[in-house]
């Protein structure tokens, strides 16, 4: 491809070719396959959402094409009650004449302009969907520099996980007009998505280079009231290893992820836990390490970690408060778009955080949950029951997936921080067991979209006597946990009767274990156990189902079946 100052002739030839193809019935859109309604669906939905959220009054569309999909956004009134002017630029006079005749009106206009050379007007939002991909990189870079000076926001696609911008491949050769896979987030463009907001364009990606439609911000604006909370005004300057997920200061003052690590007397493991986070391929993060008044050398090691890596934020309690209270403190101090919990004796698996974050961005999920590997006395295995209850699901919600009732651990998830703060969700500090699962149900219920992954992103590490955290928990605390869980699920607006049946079935097995322990140890909890049994509603179909969390045939036969009679 020749390096010319103007791409107008090549662009016009490309558009005219598309018009000819459409006239022969070989294309839905003269602009090519990227402008089909199905191909543009994700970008269209995303644009409408951003127009609602941001104070945008004017839009410039570079390479507007034949308006095959844009016409459905409803300019100049895409948002009821707000007038947003639209100006579309194209290279073909014939196409512009047709667009003006069909779509032109007060607030909507089209012009023949050379995007590669002409100065851009000052507008709120510039849309550059595909136009940059049809230019040589040096030309696209010049256009991006002009966009920065003219628009407050840019909406454009990017192959976010392309490692370099060095490969130019043409799929069509009309006067040197081709297609170039580019990643706007790396050199030489070095842009970053505003608020980490990107959506995957399903018909535009391959394993080599997934394509996302992204929103970029170039100038400080005074925002009108919006549903999203304001961002923090400052953050530490993090050391940066160059990776796809790093976000520069000019774009956002909040990290992509806040990893909340709770620890108590974990001097032997805390360094490995924090190192597993620091070495993730998500560099734009903060690591909030909360020491629950350890009596060993844990705090000393945490302070050393913070001195070596300024992404590590150490917090120590004045008294031993318990993991729930410490996690609540962590959430109050978190500034990331998402939060993630890690225990001080566990680790993240290599690439785990990046996989979760990529999924969160690609489907705009409020919650993303990965799978985990158990490590008990140096023996590793999948947690089979947990793995069974967590299928690979791209996007779902609580009402549509009752099986979420059986996911108990709160680590190994990304949770949108705004979701937690808006719903006022906290860990119950009065519980010594099962606070995670109550928290989870409240989060799942509040989430608009939940994504589940089979990808193993977390290591749950236990040694001998640590085999299960509930091993030393008193029966009274177990009963409190069972009651709190059933009450929590019953109170959720999106819980269906199936949610409740599954919850009661799984709690029946926990209650049966309490009876078993009580018989063996002779405790004085019979009255409390029987009182709780009176509140358990058993459904034979579910309680006899081996897939129920905690199912054990001996408990079913010895304690539960008699309750069904």
UniProtKB/TrEMBL annotation:
Family annotation (InterPro entries): Glyco_trans_2-like (IPR001173), Nucleotide-diphossugar_trans (IPR029044), SAM-dependent_MTases_sf (IPR029063)
Glycosyltransferase 2-like domain segment(s): 258-392
Gene3D superfamilies per the UniProt record, alphabetical: Spore Coat Polysaccharide Biosynthesis Protein SpsA, Chain A, Vaccinia Virus protein VP39
Keyword annotations from UniProtKB, A to Z: Transferase
Molecular function via GO: hexosyltransferase activity
Stated name of the protein: Glycosyltransferase
Lineage: Bacteria, Pseudomonadati, Pseudomonadota, Alphaproteobacteria, Rhodobacterales
